[in-house]
Amino acid sequence: MKKKGNNILIATVTICLLLFSFKIIIQDSSIVGTWISENDTNWKINFDSNGNSIWFYNNSQTDTYVYSLNNSSPKCNNNVLVNSKTNYLTLTNNSDINDKICYEVYSISSSKLTLREINSSSLLIFDKE
Question: Which is deepest, 8, 27, 64, 91, by most CB within 10 Å?
Answer without folding.
Answer: 91
